[in-house]
């Protein structure tokens, strides 16, 4: 038996990846804490319950690895899974990492190195998700309710990428083990974009005036905490905006084109597809 275990199989990237693989006649097992009863290939998977690792890996030879979200130190949970994957004979393991390393995240670099040391280990370092502009993300909630983008990132730019392009890139690596792969890919959109530019694009595409509200890093952290994020993660996420403001996250690559054969979606295209989100 063979197939791809997709952890986070009901999330922004995982759900699309499962569909892309199945459309290509590749067996894809959607793993999540609350698997869909209607999907015979869905299975329960919980990072906090190591007894779910073995059954999820059983019969699979490839893995899409989504580390625990909203954690500044996921390695202690990921390490036992990597050992289990090696024992299970996994031949390719693609992890969705981040192009942006969270402050006070001591294990991010080590986790990437451990994944790359696995047979067929690949790290996809994705830039900021365009889907953050869609609810229920706090950024999107403010746009929807108040017509404003609140940011501490100033005019700094980020290579925002559509989660569907991340999924397509992962599918290109996981659908066929014969595909040559590097151990590291920076996954971005076609160009850098600042929050002021995002506000202008949404305004132009929807006809709704979107304002820019410049706030401090501390105010952003408080807003994230108020939305329900764990305190340590909220503070780290807000601190990322300092790096964006200072230009440290302004990176763009051609990896999506290289892996999928087509360029990544631009933000204007993304907004055009989802205009209803900000005009309802």
TrEMBL record:
<protein>
    <submittedName>
        <fullName>NAD(P)H-binding protein</fullName>
    </submittedName>
</protein>
<dbReference type="InterPro" id="IPR016040">
    <property type="entry name" value="NAD(P)-bd_dom"/>
</dbReference>
<feature type="domain" description="NAD(P)-binding">
    <location>
        <begin position="8"/>
        <end position="176"/>
    </location>
</feature>
<dbReference type="InterPro" id="IPR036291">
    <property type="entry name" value="NAD(P)-bd_dom_sf"/>
</dbReference>
<dbReference type="Pfam" id="PF13460">
    <property type="entry name" value="NAD_binding_10"/>
</dbReference>
<dbReference type="InterPro" id="IPR051604">
    <property type="entry name" value="Ergot_Alk_Oxidoreductase"/>
</dbReference>
């Amino acid at each position: 038996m063979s197939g791809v275990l997709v952890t986070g199989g009901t999330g922004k990237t995982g759900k699309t990846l499962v569909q892309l693989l199945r459309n290509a006649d590749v067996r894809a097992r959607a793993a999540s804490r609350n698997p869909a009863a209607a999907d015979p290939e869905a299975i329960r998977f919980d990072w906090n319950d190591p007894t779910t690792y073995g059954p999820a890996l059983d019969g699979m030879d490839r893995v899409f690895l989504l580390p625990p979200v909203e954690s500044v130190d996921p390695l202690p949970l990921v390490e036992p899974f990597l050992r289990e994957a090696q024992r299970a004979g996994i031949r390719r393991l693609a992890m969705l990492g981040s192009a942006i390393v969270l402050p006070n995240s001591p294990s991010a670099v080590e986790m990437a190195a451990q994944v790359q040391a696995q047979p067929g280990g690949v790290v996809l370092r994705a830039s900021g998700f365009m889907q953050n502009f869609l609810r229920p993300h706090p950024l999107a909630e403010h746009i929807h309710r108040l017509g404003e983008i609140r940011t501490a990132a100033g005019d700094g730019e980020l290579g925002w990428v559509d989660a569907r392009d991340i999924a397509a890139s992962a599918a290109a690596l996981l659908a066929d083990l014969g595909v040559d792969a590097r151990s590291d890919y920076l996954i971005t959109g076609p160009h850098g974009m600042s929050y002021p530019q995002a506000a202008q694009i949404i305004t132009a595409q929807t006809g709704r005036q979107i304002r820019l509200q410049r706030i401090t890093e501390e105010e952003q952290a408080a807003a994230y905490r108020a939305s329900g994020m764990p305190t340590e993660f909220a503070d780290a996420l807000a601190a990322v905006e300092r790096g964006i403001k200072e230009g440290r996250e302004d990176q763009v690559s051609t990896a999506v084109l290289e892996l999928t054969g087509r360029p990544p979606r631009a933000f204007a295209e993304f907004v055009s597809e989802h205009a209803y989100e900000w005009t309802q």
